[in-house]
Amino acid sequence: MNNGFFFVIDGIDGSGTTTHCKLLADNLKHKKDVFLTQEPSTNEIGKLIGKFLKTSLPAAVDALLFAADRVLHTIEIKKALEEGKIVISDRYIESSICYQGVELDEEWICSLNKFAIVPDLTIILDIDPEIGLKRKEDTSVKFENVPFLTKVRELFLKRAKKMKYPIINTSKSIEEVQIEIKKYVNAIIKSS
To answer: Which end of the chain has fewer CB atoms at under 10 Å, N or C?
Structure first.
């Protein structure tokens, strides 16, 4: 790797991952080239997942589709890192572990994703599911209901504790959340 950095911002729907990834990318553009990406990705498998998010497929099918998408996504991430870019991903493997983990074994999901590049930093954005859903414009995706998101949130918080990921409460202002995110990201950049 050529001094690239890989940062992930993850959390339940409505927690602000997309907003904060874009703001972070804008903030870091003056330091280095930034590759802003997301999961599901924009490749063909990612587009297919987008179609299936409004249907009721078994969690195992979701996990396999997201893992297949991540294979192609990882190739893009690796290339950007080798070019020395800062990669910022709106969601990554933790979303699979936590969303599909409501119904599936965590170890099985992790085994599907052994190939995945380990980020330099994963930040978990935390929000009460009811507040998060009120922020969302389109709540027709199958995962977007309070009981399900409550379970997903619990898994995100459990994983964050286990993996020592920073957790940022996003019920605060966007500016306050960005200050916290930048503090963690800048600490990684400065320490290299």
So the answer is: C
